[in-house]
Design a protein that fits this description.
40% helix, 7-stranded mixed sheet, alpha/beta, Rossmann fold, 15 strands, 6-stranded mixed sheet, single chain
Length: 399
């Protein structure tokens, strides 16, 4: 690995990677409430504060709604802020979660993805963050513990960029990454400080100079706010790519920005993945290419909001067929959410590929090599005009 900075290699879990990244970003206010599988993020951040490694005010709130309320006030007062949550904790804070985005507050929050109730499923799944994807936050999804650390650092730079000024979620698969221990290269504090200087807010709430926040807003002004919010989302696409390039230049690691293609140069077929199953998909694609004449590639979707429709159209236009691997369900479409979002993005493609969807890994189920190989076979059948289901569900073989 070529690097331009001193790194210390450590064996870190996903939650320790998230907490370490937060420490390196130097937030001045952190508010937390524990919920599986996020709890250890809060515990490690609290340890960093207690040991003096992080100079921050840590607020242990009585629930997630209060967590985000604390960070709203702190961000309005000019603080760099951080938190983490999961599943029902995310839903409990929804009122304030929505408010922080529409107030354009650059809060960074890690989400250890966990299935939503009911039935009881204290297990991995992306349904929690997908449910709230229309709440105005930028949402980034990562593949491994190293990418958790790097992306959280980058998320602060993205959130605080003057053309963006929006909160950012860094989403990683609970259980699959939260408790997974991997070698992680941790950069030195001095270089992180040069990449991410102290936050300077251009709007600071001062109790000594009272002002109204979130007062009654007439329709025309509210519409302007919404247009500005959308403009910030669109601007974020360019900034995500730029920050990724800058991070790669300084730290020696980059992830493609909005999305990351693999073996797509000559590919007729493609899988689109989100999250930790991407590594397994690469292994399967290499195996298929070695054993058959199928030219299959992979696109790893890193950014769900804003959705990179133009970028996906450019890379997938003209392919014979594409299969989308979803780890959550869109109730109204009888499919996963990414499938219909990609279908919309490809509507204006000149040569639209055949498109089929797969739902897998719900309730902590494994997205296995056998499953992914089966998906590729179905995509290949779709490419040559064979009749295949528009949606295929995996993991339903229960007693």
């Amino acid at each position: 690995m070529k690097t331009h900075v001193e790194h210390t290699m450590k064996i870190l879990t996903g939650y320790h990677s998230a907490a370490t990244a937060a420490k390196l970003a130097r937030p001045t206010v952190v508010s937390v409430y524990p919920i599986t599988p996020q709890s250890e993020v809060a515990e490690h951040v609290a340890q960093f504060v207690a040991s003096g490694e992080l100079d921050a005010e840590i607020v242990e709130a009585e629930g997630e709604h209060s967590v985000m309320s604390v960070l709203t006030g702190a961000s309005l007062a000019g603080s760099r802020t951080f938190t983490a949550t999961s599943s029902l904790g995310l839903f409990f804070m929804f009122e304030m979660y929505l408010r922080t985005s529409t107030l354009r507050l650059p809060i960074v929050m890690a989400i250890a993805n966990r299935e939503a109730l009911s039935p009881g499923a204290v297990s991995g799944g992306q349904s929690d963050s997908f449910v709230v994807r229309e709440a105005g936050w930028i949402q980034l999804y990562v593949e491994n513990c190293q990418e958790i650390l790097d992306t959280i650092i980058m998320a602060f730079k993205l959130a605080e960029h003057p053309d963006v000024r929006l909160p950012v979620n860094v989403c990683y698969d609970g259980w699959y990454l939260s408790y997974l221990a991997e070698p992680v290269f941790v950069p030195d504090q001095k270089t992180v400080d040069s990449f991410l200087p102290p936050y300077k807010s251009d709007v600071i709430w001062d109790p000594l100079k009272p002002m109204t926040i979130d007062g009654w807003t007439p329709s025309g002004l509210l519409t302007k706010y919404r247009m500005s919010h959308c403009a910030g989302m669109e601007a974020a696409k360019k900034i995500i790519d730029e920050v990724d390039v800058e991070y790669g230049r300084i730290f020696g690691r980059s992830y493609g920005g909005l999305l990351e293609p693999y073996r797509m140069d000559d590919a007729d077929l493609a899988l689109l993945t989100v999250g930790s199953c991407t590594g397994t998909a690469r292994v399967v694609i290499d195996k298929i290419r070695a054993e058959t004449n199928l030219k299959v590639g992979l696109v790893k979707l890193r950014c769900l909001r804003p959705f990179p429709r133009n970028e996906l159209r450019r890379i997938l236009d003209g392919r014979a067929a594409v299969g989308v691997v979803d780890r959550q369900v869109s109730w109204g479409w009888n499919s996963g959410g990414v499938l219909w979002e990609l279908r919309s993005a490809l509507y204006e493609a000149k040569h639209r590929p055949g498109l089929i969807g797969f739902v897998d890994g719900l309730g902590g189920g494994d997205i296995t090599k056998d499953h992914l190989e089966s998906m590729i076979r179905l995509v290949a059948d779709k490419a040559v005009g064979k009749s295949v289901p528009e949606m295929t569900w995996y993991g339903t073989d229960v007693p």
